[in-house]
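Section 5.1 Outputs to date
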Amino acid sequence: MSSERQINNVLINRGEDIELLFFEGEVEIGKSPIVVFELAEGYMKSVLEKLAGQGVEIVTPVTEAPGGWSSEFIDPDGHPLAFFQSGELPLS
């Protein structure tokens, strides 16, 4: 019997512009982003600077991620959210 746990996920494509990827698992609110928004045109640093200027709490600054860059933040209602962008796009 293997001690490795299988991770189940579901990918939903809605047209050309929307992809939703769901992972099965337990999430501790405030510890993991629930929703990840892809910045299809890039400019993550610029977007985060604007959000921070409006009082949004940036939890994880721009960080290298598989295939690109990511960042996590908390929305005004306390929900953890994240951005992802391809490594081929400009950061600012």
